[in-house]
């Protein structure tokens, strides 16, 4: 199950970094997304939708997680492959 993480300013879809690479869309992900060693945190406006379309993910496969202040992932590196 994928997680949708939001804070008071924005939202991201947490997905395995390996899946982004496997789908061949890593070069299309913007610097508005974040990453750590294992996951990509795809920003909600474009990158998350690109992933969902490429992976053919249904909305009911996403678990919503809410953060009301700054999400910790904002301290992660910007996405770059």
Description:
The longest helix is centred in the middle third of the chain and has 9 residues, at about 45-55. With about 80 residues, the chain is of the alpha+beta class. It is globular, with a radius of gyration of 12 Å. It contains 2 helices and 6 strands. It has one domain. The chain has helices spanning about 15-20, 45-55, and strands spanning about 1-5, 10-15, 35, 40-45, 60-65, 75-80.
| Gross morphology | globular
Number of helices: 2
The count of β-strands is 6
Report the β-strand fraction as a percent range. Answer: 25-35%
Order of helix and strand elements from N to C terminus: EEHEEHEE
Query: How would you classify the helix and strand content by structural class?
Result: alpha+beta
Radius of gyration: 12 Å
The major beta sheet can be summarized as: 6 strands, mixed
Helical content, roughly?
Answer: 10-25%
Q: Detail the poorly predicted runs.
A: none
Describe this protein with a few key phrases.
alpha+beta
List the helices and strands and how they pair.
Blueprint: E1 2-6, E2 11-16, H1 17-22, E3 34-35, E4 39-43, H2 47-55, E5 62-66, E6 77-78
Short structural summary:
The chain has 81 residues and is an alpha+beta fold. Helices cover 19% and strands 31% of the residues.
